[in-house]
Amino acid sequence: RPAQHWWRDAVIYQVYVRSFLDSTGDGIGDLAGVRTGLPYLRKLGVDGIWLSPFYPSPQHDHGYDVADYRNVDPVYGDLAEFDLLVADAHRLGLKVLLDIVPNHCSSDHPWFRAALEDVPGGPSRALFHFADGRGDNGELPPNNWRAMFGGPAWSRIKEADGTDGQWYLHMFTPEQPDLNWRNPAVPADFDKVLRFWLDRGVDGFRIDVAAGLYKHPELPDSPDPTADERTRDSVNPLAWNQPEVHQVWRDWRALCEEYTARDGNDRLLVGEVSVRTPSEQAAYVRPDELHQAFFFHLLTARWDVDVFRKVISEALTDIAATGSTVTWVLNNHDQVRTVTRYASGPHGEGGGVGPARARAAALLMLALPGAAYVYQGEELGLPEVVDLPDEVLTDPIFHRTGSRQHIRDGCRVPLPWSGHASPFGFTQGTDAARPWLPQPEWFAEHATDRALTDTRSFWHLYREGLHLRRSLPQLGEGALRWLDTPPQVLAFVRGDGLVCAVNFGTEPVPAPVPGSPLLASGDCPAGTLPGSTAAWWMHAADPGTDLR
Ligand code: ISL
Question: Which Pfam families does the record associate with it (predicted)?
Answer without folding.
Answer: Alpha-amylase
